[in-house]
Amino acid sequence: MNNRTETLIPVVGVITDVRIDTPDVKTFRVVTPEGKKAFDHMPGQCAMLSIPGVGEAMFSITSSPTNTEFMEFSIKKCGCVTDWLHQAEVGQQITIRGPYGRPFPVEEEFKGKDLLFIAGGIGLAPLRSVINYCRHYRDDYGKIDIVYGSRSMDDLVDYKEIVDEWTKDTNVDVHLTIDREQEGWDGHVGFVPNFVKELGFDTNKTAIICGPPIMIKFTLQAMVELGFNKEQVYTTMELRMKCGVGKCGRCNIGSKYVCKDGPVFRCDELDELPDEY
Amino acid sequence: MRKFSLSVLSEVFAEIAKNATLYIPATDNAGGAKFTKWAEGVEYLETLNTVKSPKDFFFPHTEDLMEFKVTGKNIELFDIREESEDFVVFGVRACDVKSFDILDRVFLVDPVDTYYASRREHGVIISLACTRPAETCFCGTFDIDPATPAGDISAWKTEDSIYLEANTAKGEALLAKLDVLTEECDTEAVETQQEKIRKIMDKLPLKDLTTDSFGGGKTLDLFNSEKWAELSESCLGCGTCTFVCPTCQCYDIKDFNTGNGVIRYRCWDSCMFSEFTKMAHGNSRLSQLERFRQRFMHKLVYYPENNEGIFSCVGCGRCLSKCPISMNIVKVMKALGGEK
Question: What pTM does this model have?
């Protein structure tokens, strides 16, 4: 028997809560069979979840590291592993390994800054971790703005937490939008990039964007038009992964592996990489 | 330096095989050679290179990683790793020996791949200087000297003898066990042999192939070259180049339901395959052009960028002889390097 630690070997985790967020997003709470957190992480890092016999896939850890009791994963139903997870019930065991990747620089770069979070759809999942981390250490960060948009009212992930907690914080402004008019919605209607331009933020902020690739692209364009430098804007990427540690060879963008050199990148770093994501 | 007469070759093999599993190049019964477990009667085959590289001694084509037992909602996980057996590989050419260094820089960096590490620790490499490098050889492009192969023990074969020089503690320990069968000797015969090899190298058709246009920091210029379209046009995406390549290390992890549990295994994969980067919601490399470009950019630009300029090619020439459409890294290097 080999006694050395092997990153490819996961531990068993138990789903202790399943929250239905939207018609195709559920949030799963995971702990070890002993009821503990499987491991510590920093905001923006990911974990490999698997169901033996079905497959293994990488997910961003959506709960904040300041939550010492459990981890949460907001997962959109869109493939083999996620389909399976969506039919899983409380008490179901899965496997978990991690944490993987470079986190958001919450201690180094974000401290003392005004922060602008911009998310589209399920893109809120990785940002929720860093938003709640900054809310927890509120005094370490300046004004927080959150722009969040989805297809419809029903597709806003974590809507309850946003309304019940985030909007009530002091010095936190939440700006919600949905793509099309909808009965019962009296908020903003329109796509995120345009909404960002309409809101016209001060360019002294550090921005963090996550969403579908097309949304990231147009939002970054809008930010540049508002006068932001790419050095002020962070994003988090997703590509196919198997190992999580830069060895299986598939999640690279140029010489960078998203699993270990990312998933968090500063947007000027992306300019130096080939356009292949 | 020590030597033994070729007439006692099988005695030497038998001595080595007393303490470790020994692999030597032998016929694959299909006109080529493959590393074969030595036993009485297995004939050593004089060959330049085996059809497949010896990388699977350390990074096997497929290997089981762990097992699961699933009962209702519960999962039991079994760590089935075992320490590798002790083994010796005889007759590895200089290019293939260099490929192990290139793989080490992937598998032995933190977090260490323990499956690979265990085999690496338990394996002893006896290299063998090339006597007749072939027209497809271009190890010199990557500063590899086929007349001075590395490995735990370097070996040279002349008409009547094999000469041995230990390079590592593992190599010295093995050589000590061969004390009775070998004798101390000077380096003259080896030097003559090396001269001969270098003269052949000077006449090889690919001797002027250079890496000048490649390396870290050249990503965007090369990635955006218009030449990829023409170069990749005929690529079938069969992946043969990656499977015979001694440095290709991409792998897949998959689960196999045995009916009695689940085995999670890994197997070689290829960036040339269309599903390599396919996700539930899209694929970052949709066309064969993008997949083809990835393979060569990785070997010539991305890997060197991450590994102090070392290229992920050793010039073994396997892809030159095996590609069904005769496309290969040499043509890519010449085209991108500006040669017609």
Answer: 0.94
Answer whether A52 sits within 8 Å of B224, measured CB to CB.
no
What does the block give as tokens for A265?
A: 């990148």
Contact check, Cβ <8 Å, A92/B279: no
Same domain, A160 and A216: yes
- Whether A253 maps to a domain, the answer reads no
**Are B253 and A11 within 8 A, CB to CB?**
no
Angle between helices A213-226 and A192-199 in degrees, nearest 10: 20
Cβ contact A167:A174 at 8 Å: yes
- A242 domain-assigned: no
Same domain, A190 and A83: no
- A9/B66 Cβ within 8 A: yes
Residue A252 lies inside a defined structural domain of this protein: no
Are A125 and A193 found together in one domain?
yes
Query: SS3 for B307?
Result: coil
Give CA angle at B326 (B322, B329), nearest 5°.
Answer: 85
Residue with tokens 């949460």: A72
Q: Who among A1, A240, A255 is closest to B278 (CB)? A: A240
Which residues of chain B make contact with A122, given a CB cutoff of 8 A? Answer: none
Domain that holds residue A220: 115-236
Provide the shortest C-alpha distance from residue A39 to chain B (in Å).
16
Tell me, yes or no, whether A128 and A187 share the same domain. Answer: yes
CA–CA distance, A19 with A29 (Å, rounded to integer): 8
Residues 23-52, chain A, touching B (beta carbon < 8 A): 50, 52
Chain B residues closer than 8 Å to A274 by CB: 219-220, 223-224, 297
Pair A93, A16 in one domain: yes
| CATH value at residue A65 | 2.40.30.10
pLDDT by residue for chain A (277 residues), tens only, comes to 567 899 999 999 999 999 999 999 999 999 999 999 999 999 999 999 999 999 999 999 999 999 999 999 999 999 999 999 999 999 999 999 999 999 999 999 999 999 999 999 999 999 999 999 999 999 999 999 999 999 999 999 988 999 999 999 989 999 999 999 999 999 999 999 999 999 999 999 999 999 998 899 999 999 999 999 999 999 999 999 999 999 999 999 999 999 999 999 999 999 889 988 8
Looking at the fold, whether A87 and A129 belong to one and the same domain comes out as no
A123 and A224 both lie in a single domain:
yes
Final residue in a domain of this structure, among A76, A100, A124? A100
A53 within some domain: yes
Contact (CB, 8 A) for B33 and B45? yes
Q: In which residue are the tokens 């050199």 written?
A: A261
Phi, psi (deg, nearest 5) at residue B174: -70, -40
The domain boundary, picked from A100, A135, A155, lies at: A100
Between chains, do A2 and B118 touch, taking CB under 8 Å as contact?
yes
Contact A247 B106 (CB under 8 A): yes
Task: Please tell me the total count of domains within chain A.
Answer: 2
Which segments within B72-170 are labelled E, that is strand? 74-78, 87-92, 123-127, 153-157, 161-166
Statement to judge: residues A38 and A95 lie in one domain: yes
Chain A residues whose beta carbon lies within 8 Å of the beta carbon of residue B297: 254, 274
